[in-house]
Every structure is written in structure tokens, then in C-alpha cells.
């Protein structure tokens, strides 16, 4: 019995593989937020998923296996989350520079516009994330407009475009 308890405790304290990511890793938080945005409108398009993978590959220098492990860790963390605060607080600890937080928001907008459209719920999710990251409404709108211009996307049907 004592051997089983020791073996169990050993598995808890044993070093993890390098491909695993800690729950408070800012990369996991970022990937989780990406999934929150992609899933917000109930339609995670192929274009959004491809844009997401391309951005992750460009942003993080990981092996294909490491990238897949990161994506799985972020997806799992996102599916267990009840709000965005956990992820945004992890990111705020690591992204002390405001420009980095603004850039992160721009990446989220690029994912939204990957399929050529955005929904009100996607707007709301990014507004909430921006607020928690401390990104101003002005910078949020500018990032959205820049992402829309990069994809030649249009505003949400029936809504007026916000002015900066």
C-alpha cells in the first residue's frame, strides 16, 4: 500500500515532458482565447482554423508536435473556463508592454475576419477580452479596422461602423 502511495506521489512531482505546457503558460492562455473567439459565433470555419494555425506557427517556434500539444492544451483550458479573466490575467502578467497587448488583440481580429465576416457575438467577446487586457476602445476599434482592411471584410450587417 505504501508503495502505491509513493508511486502516486512520484507521478505528481515527476518532471513533465517538454512538450507539455503549464496551465498558467501565457501561450496556453493566448490559444484558449483564440478558441473562445473562434467558437463565439457557433461556427468555427475552416478559414478561421487555418488562419489560427498559421498565426500560431508564425508566432511560436515549436515543432509540429509541440504546436499540436500547445493547441490541445489551449483548447482544453478554454473548454474548462467559465470566463476570460483567468487567461487575460495570465497574459497581463507576461505582456507588460501595451503594444504587445494591442498586437494580441489584432491577432484575434485577424482570426475573426479569416472567413470574411464578423458577428456581434465575436465583437462582444473581443470587446470583453480587450477590456480585461486594458486595451482602450480606440485601440480595439483601430485593430478591428486594420484587420478588416487586410481581408477586405465588411462590418456586421445592419450595424454602422464605429468611428475612431
Automatic annotation (TrEMBL):
- Highest taxon in the source lineage: Bacteria
Domain (Co-chaperone DjlA N-terminal): give its ranges. Answer: 28-144
Q: Which InterPro entries match?
A: DjlA_N, TerB-like
- Give start-end of the signal peptide: none
Q: What is this protein called?
A: Putative tellurite resistance protein B-like protein
Amino acid at each position: 500500500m505504501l508503495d502505491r502511495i509513493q508511486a502516486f506521489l512520484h507521478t505528481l512531482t515527476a518532471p513533465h515532458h517538454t512538450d507539455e505546457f503549464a496551465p498558467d503558460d501565457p501561450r496556453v492562455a493566448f490559444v484558449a482565447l483564440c478558441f473562445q473567439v473562434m467558437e463565439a459565433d457557433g461556427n468555427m470555419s475552416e478559414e478561421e482554423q487555418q488562419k489560427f494555425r498559421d498565426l500560431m506557427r508564425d508566432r511560436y517556434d515549436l515543432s509540429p508536435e509541440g504546436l499540436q500539444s500547445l493547441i490541445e492544451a489551449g483548447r482544453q483550458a478554454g473548454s474548462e473556463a467559465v470566463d476570460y479573466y483567468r487567461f487575460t490575467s495570465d497574459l497581463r502578467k507576461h505582456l507588460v508592454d501595451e503594444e504587445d497587448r494591442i498586437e494580441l488583440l489584432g491577432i484575434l481580429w485577424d482570426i475573426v475576419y479569416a472567413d470574411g465576416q464578423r458577428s456581434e457575438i465575436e465583437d462582444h467577446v473581443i470587446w470583453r477580452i480587450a477590456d480585461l487586457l486594458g486595451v482602450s476602445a480606440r485601440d480595439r476599434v483601430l485593430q478591428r479596422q486594420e484587420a478588416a482592411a487586410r481581408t477586405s471584410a465588411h462590418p456586421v450587417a445592419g450595424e454602422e461602423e464605429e468611428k475612431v
